[in-house]
Amino acid sequence: MCDQCLITKEMIIDNLQKNYFVNYYQPIVNVKENIINGVEVLLRLKNPLLDNVCPECFIACAENENVINDLFFFSAEQAIKDISNNKSFNKLSINLSPKTLNVPNLYSWLKDKCNKYDIKKESVTLEITENVEYVETDISLENIENLRMLGFGLSIDDFGTGYSSYSRLKSMPFTELKIDKMFIKHIKTNNSDKKIIEHLVNLAQILGLQTVAEGIEDLETYHIIKNLGVNLCQGYFFHKPMAINDVLAL
């Protein structure tokens, strides 16, 4: 988080109303076939009157001030609409705060948006973020059960950091395990990180989960990840987050 980004709840609401929030998309690569498999949605604030505002700052503020749901619904609908223009993508990953899981009928809203824009529900994966703790309620359980029943994927984001744990992995019907970039960054020189990733890949295979590694920044790291059996990966080595038109041009 950047100390210089003094974001408030009022600023978030104002910028949302003025359409200064925009979606960027980072391609996700299928390791085995070495092709773009899909994209992850990354929300950005592009107000010309503000300096670069780091996403961690406005996301943290939105979580603390309980406006994270507003950002999710804006970003998710825009992403589903954007990707409907390119049916070749097999995967659309959307970050989802644990707080949003407690919005009544979240599953129905997502189902309706996929139907509206003719997107397969099976192609949408919701990445449960780790910046706040998940509080289990009847509403969250209903959403999770129905999301999986409808075919949506559930990813445990940044496993091994934040609030993620084996207990959460056990309690939710996840379809994907996402390996945090902190384990990727020094994998070329740190054998412990390599062993951790190897363990996570084996764990995911036992549980029938797909694995995604983020933060791939060079060819050697990519080769190591590939040899460890990771299914999907993303990072600056392939593509930085980009505007939708640039993604579609790929």
Automatic annotation (TrEMBL):
- One Pfam family linked to the record: EAL
Family annotation (InterPro entries): Cyclic-di-GMP_PDE-like, EAL_dom, EAL_sf
* Domain EAL, chain residue ranges per copy: 5-250
Entries under SUPFAM superfamilies matching the protein: EAL domain-like
Record-given protein name: EAL domain-containing protein
Organism of origin = Photobacterium iliopiscarium
